[in-house]
Specification:
The protein is an alpha/beta fold. Helices cover about 25% and strands about 30% of the residues.
Length: about 260
């Protein structure tokens, strides 16, 4: 699978400018791709002013994602602010080229910024199958919670996914946990992990260092980009992953559990 990580600066609370910028970057990719991953809240930056920027489902950004996926032949995924049934969600859209889609609402809301007072938390993960891969997309602060990221359905020792994604607006002041935990999630889950973060400074004055990365199933860093805007493309090997899992089946010693 060829995966593309779009690490960019974001225009503060300006969905029109961000969609235009990202569209230019998507159509400027050096080679075809299977999966395009955008940062968290890619239309606005990480904002608590949900009331002024939220969109209902099936409006402008949703339709833009549908267009990008159709025109590139790739899944396009990232989160933005959605209003539904009077509530606000930090919602990731998984958009396929055929228009089929799924949604994941951020489970762990960043209370230190008051996200938990503005947005409604999700209550389910999604595992998506694409080009023979099983992929689990999560959002930013979810990275700190290994149980939610665990590569199992909680009731068996079988793998639930092959690739774990995190889309983020993770500030530079906490870059050490970001880099460390991405590797930890890959090692403990015997899976590829990709984390996509933004760069630049947001409207609240918080700087971001990027550090978007791809980590393999042994915890080795295949790519990491710091403080630059970049579209990183890389091909991942399912054969290599499965061969390592057969050689080192640590999952067979994992503890069963159920998330309440």
């Amino acid at each position: 699978m060829n995966i593309t990580l779009l690490q960019t600066n974001l225009y503060w609370q300006d969905p029109v400018a961000n969609r235009a910028m990202l569209e230019e970057r998507i159509f400027g990719l050096a080679e075809p791709t299977d999966l395009i991953v955008l940062p968290e809240m890619f239309t606005t930056g990480f904002t608590m002013d949900a009331a002024s920027v939220a969109e209902p489902m099936n409006l402008t950004t949703f339709r833009w994602l549908k267009q990008m996926a159709a025109q590139t032949g790739a899944v396009v995924t990232g989160s933005y602010v959605v209003k539904e049934a009077g509530k606000f969600f930090n919602r990731l859209i998984w958009m396929q080229p055929d228009g089929q889609f799924d949604t994941y609402d951020k489970r762990h809301l960043f209370r230190m910024a008051g996200e938990d007072t503005i947005y409604t938390a999700g209550d389910r993960r999604i595992i998506k199958e694409w080009k023979g891969w099983r992929i689990c997309p999560l959002i930013c602060y979810d990275l700190r919670f290994p149980v939610w990221s665990r590569n199992t359905d909680g009731q068996s020792q079988e793998f639930a996914y092959d690739l774990l994604l995190y889309v983020a607006n993770w500030p530079a002041v906490r870059r050490a946990p970001w880099n460390t935990l991405l590797q930890g999630r890959a090692i403990e889950n015997l899976a590829y992990v990709a984390g996509v973060n933004r760069v630049g400074t947001d409207g609240n004055g918080h700087p971001y260092s990027g550090d978007s990365a791809i980590i393999d199933f042994k915890g080795e860093v295949l790519a990491r980009h710091t403080d630059v805007e970049i579209a990183h493309q890389q091909t991942l090997s399912l054969d290599d992953l499965n061969a390592f899992r057969q050689k080192f089946p640590a999952n067979l010693d994992a503890d069963a559990f159920i998330i309440q």
